[in-house]
Amino acid sequence: MKTVIEQAQIAKNASHLMRKATTEQKNTFLKVLATLIEKNKDLIIAKNTKDLNENQNITPAMKKRLTLSEAGLAGIVSAIGSLVPMPDPVGVVVNEHIREDGLKISRVRAPIGVIVCIFESRPNVIVDVAALCIKSGNVAIVRGGKEAFHSNNILLSYIQQALQESGLPQDGVQQLEDRRHEAINELIVLDQYIDLVIPRGRKELIDSVTEHSKVPVIKHARGLCHAYIDRDADIEKAIDIVINAKTSNPATCNSVETVLVHKDIADSIMPKLLEKLFEKNVEVMGDERTCTYSNKCRLATEDDWDEEYLDLKVSIKIVDSYDEAIAHISKYSSSLTDSIVSENNETTKNFQDDVDSAVVLVNASNRLTDGEQFGLGGEIGISTCRIHMRGPMGLEDMTVTKYVVVGDGHIRK
Amino acid sequence: MKTVIEQAQIAKNASHLMRKATTEQKNTFLKVLATLIEKNKDLIIAKNTKDLNENQNITPAMKKRLTLSEAGLAGIVSAIGSLVPMPDPVGVVVNEHIREDGLKISRVRAPIGVIVCIFESRPNVIVDVAALCIKSGNVAIVRGGKEAFHSNNILLSYIQQALQESGLPQDGVQQLEDRRHEAINELIVLDQYIDLVIPRGRKELIDSVTEHSKVPVIKHARGLCHAYIDRDADIEKAIDIVINAKTSNPATCNSVETVLVHKDIADSIMPKLLEKLFEKNVEVMGDERTCTYSNKCRLATEDDWDEEYLDLKVSIKIVDSYDEAIAHISKYSSSLTDSIVSENNETTKNFQDDVDSAVVLVNASNRLTDGEQFGLGGEIGISTCRIHMRGPMGLEDMTVTKYVVVGDGHIRK
């Protein structure tokens, strides 16, 4: 078994080669990997079944995340394929200017380097991470959940085979071999080798990584998302958006947890909105005014405004004004994604500036906050940090600009 | 005295207003501040003299950094003025596309939020930080060196007056009032209020901040910079660049510490290069081959390749090949700024890819690595991180992109 520090050094060395990989090599890797997974799907499913058998005491939700079905594998293969036509971000000149004295100053995209990605039971993540990291010229050290041990191992073997077959360093993607819990904390202090850590999973994992890391962390803290129905909202659109944003996949971070309704539109929208929510078996925690529209609503407590239900539950508050909506969002939003429904252009323009979230949506469902939906060809995570970038993190966001300065004997005067 | 947490909360609240400041307000702030400093220069110099008197036991170098002369103040005023015509980065649409179904997805620049800047004795930094933070829509909490106590206080009073006179929140720039050493560590764990920490100063300060912070840190680790004289170099340009990069201000991080010379050009360049270096009183630590050109060279030890002299000292190594130069730079460079001198376009193109530094220069002095030289109108620091951005950090780099998504009732299917 390699030690933590050995794996970090290997990754750093591999990153010097990976940085210079051609677009063709990177696309070959993606195609070979897709073929290998396709060809070996029975073997992969057998390993996944072994994981499921060895972890019979996990919750049904975890079991669902851990399971790799044939359809799930087809989805993974298709996700890899969708990265092939995406433009290679490495080497792109973001901007350049030439000084009066002829010195040319350019900002050019380069890979970040070595990215550590820590995730929990879903075994598709190891493939997503590998595909996104390699296409963007980065090297990855991954640590998956122990429940997915056999699934991750077999997928990693195909990833490494695909790297080798495309002339890229096989160590471009490694799994942390040291399975001790402390190993991860030993890894994320090695700032001479590791350039970025992306933890995906439970709050405790993310907090622990943030606390111990000496390396930059891009994290998605939590998803307490709002939809605000303005007094100038189109009622049909508002209902469609709220139902979609709450019920299409309530366990995801981009689902709405709180709906704010302007008092002037409440009479027109609340009865129908509540009816539709109850039809979808959504439990409603409402403020006093909301509760007047239905006795099936439970009176919301202060805690409800601050809770990420991740379930078929929603809190609803009727507000007196746009300003009250903004104040509520400023106070409670996790700044991941908040939306407004309004036909008033001035109001929607203000909302874009007033709401300080990674993704602000106008007349669109919060659930659209997603790398694939945004045309990024996938995402390695959603950032709620306020440096580097905010929102779904795609290929381009896995690079960083460096300066290239070209002169003809220029010195500093 | 306000507590650390109170100041952090005040800053976060101020950031919601500052985010929406107009370009006009921000430029008014800069102009008012410049006028206030200009008008009160005698008072400022008197406070600075008080600092100098109270700190008589500091080193001559520190004393030089602490001193605010009339010319120094004129420089500060001019630096503030140069930010006025710079474009406001906030609200700039970096890119946008419209999906086939009409959903418009834009990435828009927004301020980072609350930036903590920790710096040592130079009192001009508080003004630089304030000017750059406010023009980019950010809020700052600063902690300056205790030696500059009176200077920073009076400068802060003008900063806050200028904020008020331009209709911006006066708390947009605060000094950390709690002067305890631990106060800074208490501040940089408050990730609900603080968005970024920029430490500028000694390695111990930067290490301590990196270790304790729960907030992203953009730091400039150290400046071990190289100049490589290729076999196809123009000898005159090479000598000019090395002399400039080593001697124009040896105490700065972008000065060259190691010169690598291709063996094929050594006979033509070494005698003259050494002569010029000795003329400028530069001490030379050379490898064996370098020492054959002059008995005034001291034989370099392994430690010399790894040392940031920040002084009139340079290490020189004659290399057998381009690859040996790249391997040396990969091993020892701090990845801040490395340069090549060569007339061979293929070699210089390879160098840009092979050298993984924040700034790579071709036929230009490493000393040009600077926000003002790059046309950024100043810099809040130089980043050797590998996320967010690399190199001199100017106004645009003090923002982050957020997503604005505009639909017409769009939901996720």
Summarize the structure.
The structure is a homodimer of 413-residue chains. Chain A is α/β, with parallel strands linked by helices and 413 residues long. Helices cover 42% and strands 21% of the residues of chain A.
Topology, number of strands of chain A: 16
How much strand content do the residues of chain A show? 15-25%
CATH architecture tag of the largest domain in chain A: 3-Layer(aba) Sandwich
Helix share, percent of chain A: 40-55%
User: What is the CA-based Rg of chain A, rounded?
Assistant: 24 Å
Number of domains as seen in the coordinates of chain A = 2
Tell me the structural class of chain A: alpha/beta
Largest sheet of chain A: 7 strands, parallel
Largest interface (CB < 8 Å): A-B, 72 and 72 residues
- What assembly state would you assign to the polypeptide chains in this entry? homodimer
Main-sheet strand order of chain A equals 10-9-11-8-7-12-13
* Low-confidence spans of chain A: none
The global form of chain A is globular
Q: Please, how many helices of chain A?
A: 15
Distance between the termini of chain A: 55 Å
CATH fold field value of the largest domain in chain A: Aldehyde Dehydrogenase, Chain A, domain 1
Overall mean pLDDT score of chain A? 96
CATH homologous superfamily caption of the largest domain in chain A: Aldehyde Dehydrogenase, Chain A, domain 1
The top-level CATH class of the largest domain in chain A is Alpha Beta
